[in-house]
């Protein structure tokens, strides 16, 4: 039988180490379905197709799997409409620099005459002048496969761009006629002859300068954002912070950068320390502080470090920098470890003593807050996070869509946290938790989400996927029946405005469905919790269900 281009295409994906094709199909998929069926007869190596019943969930799963494994995956969606559904999660992946091959079918371009020509009315209506135009701004590269014999080389090109530093998603559109094209001779890949560029590493003179600055600083501050995606970064940072008394603020951190039980963890808000710092070292942080609220003092030195330290895809960003190092965090941290060992630290003892006292006071305050929260009438975010301690073990992965607070819940170590992108495309956490579970089948995966974030995730699509793929995770919903972020923004801008008279709640209030009952539809375990004292045992019950193979939802109703 003459092979079709789609067969070579799927094989090319596997050649690039792509294990899964997260898919939501349409009429454009016919050659893909045929190719899978043909290849199954020969046991050929192709990515496992996973049908995910919402596009945002498919992209969030791929995102989660990739950040947990480092391995980029492929997603295939239906023409313009399916692609449109996924753009929210694509924005998250783009801002988080997650490599991904996002693809979609392209409606057949021929009206008749070819194999795969238009055969239903949507084939006219779904055509766009420029399908990639709707997402071009958030991908590194886009292309439309023109001929069947490009099936392997387009994948080669897509993957080298996606994985080159700084990494990010790329987009490929796949016309049906091209995927279905019969090919009499085998398709060639260029993979074997395409060495990839390595990520940038730090220059020795920059390391020396930064080490000098650290040695001279009385009040240094380290701010992190993306640091920790490579778990090795967090391990070195913990050592340096301890050894040289460097306070660390993981600000809106996307990953585990430093444990909240580390003496140099100084909370998640840079403001208090920033105002007095004489050296601010920013490790891979798109927004290291909010200039409208707080700034480093005049004369403070600022170093900005990262593979893309200017965050070139952010249209406007004006944070100061006296030393900008384009390099992986790991290369800078490793370099500093050597360079600092060779230096005198005249202020180290003073730094250590003062910061030790401040740290003890801060940790004491968080502990007191958690204790008080446990005695309150209703559940608060500090209490919810404090109670999570009781179920988190050395192998737990926490997925946060804003609701996880390290201060109240130390995590086990590098690689134990994944948080939503600063782009804040809500609806990410539930899908991402499934991808993270796929990558860590033996781990307890707990997502901590607001009720708003949970509903944005298309919960039914996610829970159905978890059920079908046997991916039991625990979803903890911090249910305040509110878009509290919207309320806070109203009060922040109009503290004395008319809307403040209604506590900023107008347009922020949400209905309160019995989220836990969704579990009845998905063979899972669901429970509603209202009182602080009931939460620890409810978490234990939910985790027991998850460990027994059932997904679980805790609907934690907050005052
Ligand atoms: C897709 C999407 N739509 C809308 C928003 C705007 N938004 C930001 S935070 C927020 C509220 C989220 O509510 P919830 O998850 O319950 O958390 P809370 O603010 O109550 O803590 C909204 C609607 C967004 N970030 N993403």
Report on the structure:
The protein is globular, with a radius of gyration of 25 Å. The model has no long low-confidence stretch (mean pLDDT 97). It has 19 helices and 19 strands. 38% of the residues lie in helices and 16% in strands. Strand 9, helix 9 and strand 10 form a beta-alpha-beta unit. It has 559 residues and is α/β, with parallel strands linked by helices. Helix 8 crosses helix 11. The strands form four sheets. A six-stranded parallel sheet has the order 3-2-4-5-7-6, sandwiched between helices. The chain has a six-stranded parallel sheet with strand order 15-14-16-17-19-18, with helices on both faces. A five-stranded parallel sheet has the order 10-9-11-12-13, covered by helices on one side.
Strand coverage percent: 15-25%
Task: Give me the side-by-side strand order of the main sheet.
Answer: 3-2-4-5-7-6
Q: How many angstroms does the end-to-end distance come to? A: 66 Å
Overall pLDDT score: 97
Q: Summarize the biggest pleated sheet.
A: 6 strands, parallel
> How much helix, percentage-wise, in residues?
25-40%
Question: Ligands in the structure?
Answer: thiamine diphosphate
Low-pLDDT stretches: none
Q: What general form does the structure show?
A: globular
**Structural class computed from helices and strand pairing:** alpha/beta
Helix tally? 19
User: How many beta-strand elements?
Assistant: 19
| Gyration radius, in Å | 25 Å
